[in-house]
Amino acid sequence: MPKTSINPTIMGKAYEFACVVALKEILDNIRPIEIIENSSLTVAQDRYNEIPKDQQDKMLKSAMAGIKTIMDMEPRIEEDGNDKLTVSLQPDNVAICGDVRDILIIRRSIEWEIGISVKHNHAALKHSRLSKKIDFGKEWFDINCSENYFNEITPIFDKLTLLKKEQRKWSDVLNKSENIYLPILNAFIKELSSLHEKHKNIVAEKLVIYLIGSNGKDYYKMMHRNNKKVKIQPFNIYGTLNKKATNKEPSIKYKKIKFPTKIIDLSLKENSKTTVVLTMDNGWAITFRIHNAESKVVPSLKFDIQLLGQPAELYYKEVDW
Are strands 229-235 and 263-268 parallel, antiparallel or unpaired? Predict the structure, then answer.
């Protein structure tokens, strides 16, 4: 009998719990550690218990390797001291405010914390949506999109509303790339270019802040790979990560990241009707792939947003598990 795949959401939550278990196992004999009991921890533990034992073992090995690597970057986690280290899982709704950190590691005695965004087999930045009611400019940069933009996209989304009422599936929609995706993307390109032209000193920087989900907080992204690798990537935008402990420097050091200051190019990917490529200065390049996230037609479309190019300062390390 072929193996059935486990829901990615379940795997993601289970991996969060594996990271908590790894922190507990590594630090138990080093310093006092408190795991905050909350509904997020309960859900993550339940999901971890749902998956097969072999998957649990793989996750725990991956989490142990990843956490140990972060400790090489953050000596304050294990430095000598009797003060308590607190570990907590954040509720999902904090992401609405742009906080992508799943795990918080806190030492209140020195007013220090770091956060980890946990990913299981994917590295997407965001899954933002477009619709005739969504003002992406307001959500992304706090600058409203123009009336012309909404006039351009509304007839297309109205067509999708009618198809939804007819309970149509996306597979029924003929030439959806040409008739749906492409005009929406062209309107998006035109509007984002216009916003940047009018607000050059705001858009590029705020776009990166929105997409990587910093919300004023630096964090680590830890990505489990099924190829027995775990990737650790610090997003050290505000310079709060990689600090030395009282008597110890980080054994792995990296630099603060530079924000982009301008858009260099914004256009459709060559030979594509679904993907926009955004190139900015300081090494930033991002792709926006539009798609229907459901089998049935709904009057909105989703972006799969990925980091295509990154600044030289955006360090990452892959380790075997």
Answer: unpaired
Give me the amino acid identity at 251.
Answer: S
Instruction: Give the CA-trace dihedral at 21, 22, 27, 32, to 10 degrees.
Output: -20
CA geometry: angle 278, 283, 286, nearest 5 deg:
25
CA distance 14 to 16: 5
Domain locations along the chain: 8-124+213-258+316-320, 129-209+260-309
| pLDDT tens digits, 10-25 | 999 999 999 999 999 9
Q: Which helix (H) or strand (E) holds 265?
A: strand 263-268
CA–CA–CA angle 280, 213, 321 (5° rounding): 100
Spatial distance between the Cα atoms of 293 and 290, rounded to a whole number of angstroms: 9
Looking at the predicted structure, is the pLDDT value of residue 73 above 50?
Answer: yes
The alpha helices in the chain, defined as continuous H runs, are 8-27, 39-50, 53-73, 136-141, 147-165, 176, 182-198, 203-212
Two tokens at 84?
């308590």
Residue 237 has what DSSP assignment?
S
For 150, the token pair is 């909404």
**Which pair of tokens denotes residue 90?**
């954040």
CA distance 54 to 63: 14
The DSSP code for 282 is: T
Q: Which two tokens stand for residue 290?
A: 């539009």
Its pTM stands at 0.83
CA distance 276 to 306: 11
Amino acid identity of residue 237, one-letter, is I
